[in-house]
Amino acid sequence: MSEENERHESRFGEGRRININFFWFIVIILTSIIATAVITALSLEAGSEKAVNVGTDTRSEFAKLYNVYDTINANYYEEVDREALIESSIQGMVEGLDDPYSEYMNNEELAQFQESVTGDFEGIGAEVMQEGNRVIITSPMRGSPAEEAGLEPGDEIIAVDGESIEGWTTQEAVQLIRGEKGTDVVLTIVRGEGDPMEVTITRDTIHLDSVTYEEVEGVGHISINRFQEGTTEEFENMLNTASEDGVEDIIIDFRYNPGGLLDEAVSMINQFIGQNETVLYLEDNGGERTEIKTSDEKNPNTDDFNVHILINEGSASASEVFAGALDDLTDATIAGTQSFGKGVVQRTVELGDDSLLKYTNTKWLTPDGSWVHGEGITPDVQLVNPDYYRVEMLNPEEVYTEDVSNETVPSIKVALDTLGYEVDDFNETFDASLTEAVESFQADHDLEQSGDVTGETSTALMSDLRDYINSNDAQLNYLIDYINGDYTEKEIEAYADERAQHLEIEERENHAEQDAGNEEEPTEE
User: Fold this and answer.
1) Residue 36 class from Cβ within 10 Å (0-12 exposed, 13-18 middle, 19+ buried)?
2) Shortest CA distance to 197 belongs to which of 169, 227, 168, 159?
């Protein structure tokens, strides 16, 4: 083999050597890059409807969700609002918990939620809850348009300005009920087994001073409306004012307080309990308990007080945390009626687009390890409200006249008796003596003396009774009389019972599955 042939074979053994002009080399490289980009773009475009499926291999439980999304997005007969699909799927997921305290909030709902933390908003001033597909009033706020209009815990809202809210969430209902100060909203409500009735309420700016103080017959009365940002500071100031006034007995009033910020409740307990004391436990879904302890020295002024805590069926969550802690750790007296019974705590997660997830993550237990959920706190001194607090709201369109007999008639009798008109008995018959009482009431109000209860007579009767209730706080007066020694414990309980004989007191429902009120740590209910 010649030397030339050897060289030739060697070149092929090492690989073919090709000489290419540099310009064409650059052209080939750029063409390859462009071709790759075009192929990639076309592939993504062709598969855009499936792009959402990223991750389904590792999260197979979402395969059905992705499949539904893809199917609707590709085949629905109209253009689909994809954001609305995603929002509603999140909402549905949270609703699947069947938990009235867990909810997903969009940016508008979040703004309202944040308002409730600071205590300033425009509306009617009432707490509402979801109970199945119903929206229920749990607590009309003190001094609010809702309270002045006569709304009561347990009233079901079925329509707002004539629009049915059946199946709505509480947030959806609240958005419709709230509005500009000075405007009216008409709520259609159902109370108990009664017929629907319309209540017109004028909206106002609701600023919740969460704590108020007054001295009544030598007793310091501190009322806590809710636990919001700054409540502890307000509470401490009122405690110090009571101390400066020289009062020895204080009433801490949590009636119709639905709860709020858990950290505020803990720091308020700290006013009475020394540093590093366990005031409640949080228990997770694995049964592991975390102790929540006080962090500061207690307020020395509280050593001088005899403490009485006033609660009712509207006292929930953080109110019960406070009452439960002082009941277990001090000699405070609990008075009133059974509290609501909300023994769970919520946390919040901000989702980065001005939306928020609020979900129940723990139980809370009193220092002694009691769980009040669905049961509430039982008072040491039972002080039931008088009959006139349970009067059925009269529908002005209904006519009640002599010889009529139904379950509403006793409410008419109790209302007139409370306002000072003579009533012979409290049965269900509209008799001649009731006609006379109605005529006397009509004469005092320059109304036609027909003896019938309807129209303006019904409205005036409800208005007068509401004014009477607002100026005669029966439970508070009972407790003050007991504190001042006018009655023994048994005597004041008997007196309260005696004034609650004619209208049935509804039996307490178990709230373990249908609850109201709210509370978090350290966000809001």
Assistant:
1) exposed
2) 159
Catalytic residue, from 328, 380, 464, 497: name it.
328
Cα three-residue angle 410-463-141, rounded to 5 degrees: 100
Say how far residue 245 (Cα) sits from the centre of its chain. 35
User: What angle is formed at CA 479 by the lines to CA 212 and CA 266, rounded to 5 degrees?
Assistant: 50
As given in the structure block, the two tokens for residue 23 are 């310009």
The CATH classification number of 211-382 equals 3.90.226.10
Verify whether residue 317 is a known catalytic residue. Answer: yes
Superfamily of domain 120-207: PDZ domain (2.30.42.10)
DSSP state for residue 476 in the 8-state scheme = H
Distance CA 525, CA 517 (A): 7
| Model pLDDT for residues 236-286, shown as the tens digit of each residue | 999 999 999 999 999 999 999 999 899 999 999 999 999 999 999 999 999
pLDDT given for residue 521 in this prediction: 33
For residues 228 and 519, which has the higher predicted lDDT (pLDDT)? 228
Pick the catalytic residue: 317, 339, 411, 458?
Answer: 317
Report whether 138 contacts 147 (CB < 8 A). Answer: no
43-47, 210-214, 372-376, 400-404: least confident range: 43-47
pLDDT in the model for residue 508: 54
**Cα–Cα distance, 119 to 233 (Å, whole number):** 14
| CATH architecture of structural domain 387-499 | Orthogonal Bundle (1.10)
What are the structure tokens assigned to 454, written together? 């309807």
Sequence spans of domains, the chain: 120-207, 211-382, 387-499
pLDDT value for 168: 87
DSSP assignment string, 155-205: PEEEEETTEE-TT--HHHHHHHH---TT-EEEEEEE-TTSPPEEEEEE-EE
Q: Please indicate whether residue 328 is annotated as part of the active site.
A: yes
pLDDT of residue 395: 85
Find the distance separating the first CA and the last CA of the chain, reported in whole Å: 96
Name the residue with tokens 């508008």. Answer: 108
pLDDT given for residue 52 in this prediction: 44
413 flagged as catalytic = no
